[in-house]
Specification:
The structure holds two protein chains of two kinds. By secondary structure, chain A is an all-alpha fold. Chain A has five helices and no strands. Chain A has a domain of 60 residues. Chain B starts with a helix and ends with a strand. The chains are: A mainly alpha, B mainly beta.
């Protein structure tokens, strides 16, 4: 069992390393995503997509930081999602 | 000629008399506008938010559970029935306080009133040090799998009960943590590493967590790496590990290690008009060999392979693209397996199937009706008088959960 786990971890780590080596830069496809697109893709990974009317712009700033600590979305994603929700 | 001069004179006087009030009127309008602007500036200044922000959110989950349990031991079956408001394992009232200091610091504090009385879910401070670096310190949920940290809240969980063992094997502990999300090409990684006091070994071989005073000089490392291979973030897989000594300092067990691993998967994708949501996690916990004092005879010891596994697979479907009432419904099903060490005082092989129907009143308010069928076979030691036979139970849940 221990060997199996070590092998799985090693394969996973190699996969990560290979992917990182071959694609160090963020793709244009990802950079060009809008706040609304990122909101639709990322929030629903854990819960339903929130309504922008639920909180004030100041509150969305705070909630954005709280959510980033949980979901580990990137800074770029957080900023775009929060800007969308503040509208 | 003279009459012409008189007419011109009258016109000039008329023009002058008309213009003088016009100039006066313009001066009045400008002054009023300036006053208004000045007033608005004062109002804005009084409402200036500053760089700090404080808010209260939180959640509450209430419900009802009706249960029938049948235990068979030595060929004799005994049945018991119970029902209660609320479902004790899942009731909670948990306000969460969030303080933000600029865009670099965030304090989170979530006290909770639940079946354990008053407790604290987390109390920590996060420093957003760099784009992919958050440093946290305090009391927080460890990065072991994703269920406890992301999916356990009542308004997020698709089913009323938690999957057996999964959240219980994820400690909340005191320490420091670094984490972040990194975009690479069209994919994303996340990392989360925590250094904490660690679990403490109990006399029966179970563990307790959240000890503010460390029971040994060894710190526990818990780490998770997440990988989102698709550019739309629909799939995430993760590997976690937890390594640390659990025995008391100075005791014969002080070098006993807990080596635990977790594997998690999350897939959420729209197949119009259905939103498909698949979640899974597998936990395995290995604690080193220990000679435990027998609860039957304190002069004797016993040992067992202290390995615990817990896993679940969950699928839910919601027709978000449908019209009217249907789009707010969601069906969910989950299969859970939880095996505790055989020949211990608490060994059992257990599994359950849970199915449920959710009605979403808003994006963060849900009403659930669930049914759970449980089966457990005791593998506990007969010589320690811990064997409890076979247990089956049927439980019906009604639950309401809201995030505020």
């Amino acid at each position: 069992m221990k060997k199996t786990i070590i092998i799985i971890v090693a394969i996973f780590n190699n996969l990560l390393l290979i992917t990182a080596m071959y694609s160090c830069q963020v793709s244009h496809k990802v950079i060009s995503k809008s706040g609304v697109q990122l909101w639709a893709e990322n929030c629903q990974r854990c819960h339903n997509t929130p309504s922008s009317a639920s909180f004030s712009p100041e509150q969305w700033e705070t909630i954005g930081m709280h959510m980033q600590t949980r979901s580990l979305i990137t800074n770029e994603e957080r900023n775009k999602i929060v800007e969308f929700l503040k509208q | 000629m003279r009459s012409k001069r008189i007419v011109l004179g009258i016109c000039l006087v008329a023009a002058l008399t008309n213009r003088i009030p016009l100039y006066a009127q313009k001066t009045v309008v400008d002054s009023a506008l300036l006053d208004r602007v000045s007033e608005l500036e004062k109002q804005m200044a009084s409402k200036k938010t500053g760089e700090d922000h404080f808010m209260v959110v939180g959640l509450t989950t209430v419900g009802f559970a009706s249960n029938k349990t049948t235990n068979t031991l030595g060929g004799v079956s005994t049945s018991t029935k119970s029902n209660s408001f609320p479902d004790a394992d899942n009731y909670e009232f948990s306000p969460m306080f969030l303080w933000r200091h600029g865009k670099s610091f965030l304090m989170e504090f979530e006290p909770s009133f639940n079946n354990n009385g008053l407790s604290v879910n987390w109390a920590d401070i996060s420093w957003f040090a760099a784009p992919a670096l958050i440093v946290r310190a305090g009391y927080f949920v460890l990065p072991y799998g994703t269920y406890a940290k992301r999916e356990a809240a009542g308004w997020i969980n698709k089913l009323a009960p938690d999957p057996m063992g999964i959240a219980d094997m994820t400690p909340t502990d005191y320490g420091v943590e670094v984490e972040g999300g990194i975009p690479v090409g069209s994919t994303k990684f996340s990392y989360d590493v925590a250094l904490t006091n660690g679990n403490q070994l109990n006399p029966d071989g179970t563990l307790t967590s959240g000890n503010i005073v460390d029971n040994n000089n060894n710190k526990t490392i818990t780490a998770r790496v997440g990988f989102l291979p698709l550019s739309n973030s629909s799939l995430e897989v993760g590997i976690s590990g937890m390594w640390g000594k659990v025995g008391d300092q100075g005791s014969p067990n002080q070098n006993i290690m807990d080596n635990s691993y977790a594997f998690d998967l999350n897939y959420v994708k729209m197949y119009s008009p259905i939103l498909l949501n698949i979640k899974a996690q597998y936990n395995i916990q290995n604690i080193g060999n220990v000679n435990y004092i027998s609860p039957v005879d304190s002069t004797q010891t016993y040992t067992f392979k202290n390995q615990t596994t817990a896993s679940f697979v969950q699928c839910s479907l919601r027709p978000v693209g449908a019209a009217g009432f249907m789009k707010d419904l969601e069906i969910a099903g989950r299969y859970t397996v939880f095996n505790t060490p055989s020949n211990s005082t608490f060994g059992a092989n257990q599994h359950d199937i849970t199915v449920g129907l959710d009605y979403w009143l808003t994006w963060r308010t849900v009403f659930k009706i669930c049914y759970q069928a449980y089966n457990g076979n005791s593998t506990a030691s007969k010589t320690l008088s811990s064997f409890t036979g076979t247990t089956t139970s049927d439980t019906f849940f009604v639950q309401f959960s809201i995030q505020l």
